[in-house]
Structure formats: structure tokens, C-alpha cells
# Entry
Amino acid sequence: MTVSNPIDMEAFENAIHSWFSEATGFDKKAVIWRQTSAPQPKYPFGSLMITSGPTPVAPQWEQRPSTDLTRGRGEEVEFVVCVPCSFMISCQAYVGQVDARNPNENALQYMAKAQSSLSLPSVIADLQAVQIAVIRPGPVQNINELIEDAFVSRANMDVEFGAALNVAEYTGYIEKVHGTSTSLGIDQIFGVGV
# Structure
């Protein structure tokens, strides 16, 4: 049996990418997914990585059966199983060497903008439109590092997002059953249209 995709990962990643690039002000091409073959953009730029998920947040999947007699024979009954899940996304900003004449142009400022944006009704509505919820933005972390002979301004924030996993399968149904029992005195047909 082949199982369909429980979540549209391309749509999920595109929505997260759009939010981060718009919130930080980075050009869309200046935000990359880490662990891909994309070249590093010029400073300043951002990166994203799914560090965990999808992680089901309920102990059991909910089952939702439905019947549609207009579907093909053997596929009249649909069983959808679903569960809410969470994803942890690592968001990073890289600015390069900070200019002392412009101390606000550093990675912490970009991440503060991204973190704050997750409380805006418009951002929440945009994510909800593609069935993503903001569960919890984490703290902004200063992860500056020395590269060659200069410090590079870097910052990280982990954000927990919510979504749902849904998988469906189809089966048929028994239309009629003929039950007989001499001891109970039954000789009857049970089912649809009887």
C-alpha cells in the first residue's frame, strides 16, 4: 500500500521562507535553506532549517470516516486519520563584520524583527491561510563567530510552528446481507435500499 503525503512540505517551507524574508527585510534570494546545495549569499542574509518535525502532539490519530456513494466501487468509504503536529525551525541571520558607525545593523536586530513579527495579526493570518500556526518563538541568541580574522555578526532563533498531518485511504462497503436463523426465526435481507 502506498501512503500519500500527510503534509505538503513544499507549501509549508514556502510559507516559512516568505514569512522570514519579509519580516527581516532580506531579499527572497538572500534567504536559503541550510543543508542544501545553494551557494551562500552575500551579507546580510538569512538561513532556515527544520531541526525537528513533524512531531505528533496528540497520543493518537483521530479517525474521520465519511461515505460518498458517487465514488467508484470499492472506494465509497473514506477514512481520514489526522493529528496535530509541530515543527521546530532554526532561523538565522548573518550580517558580516559589524560597522561601529552603525551598531543597529547587526544580526540581533534582524532576528528581533522576525521574532516581533510573529505577534502581528497579518502575519498570523497569512500563516493560518496555509494551515500553519505559531506556537512559540524562542529567544534570540547571539552566535557571533570569528571567521578568518573578523567577527561575523550572527543570531539564531528557534520557532515552534504547528500544522496537521492527514492521511486518507478508501474502502468499499457491504451493501446487503442476508441473515437466516431457524432458531431465531430470521430469514431477512439487511442493508441499503431494503
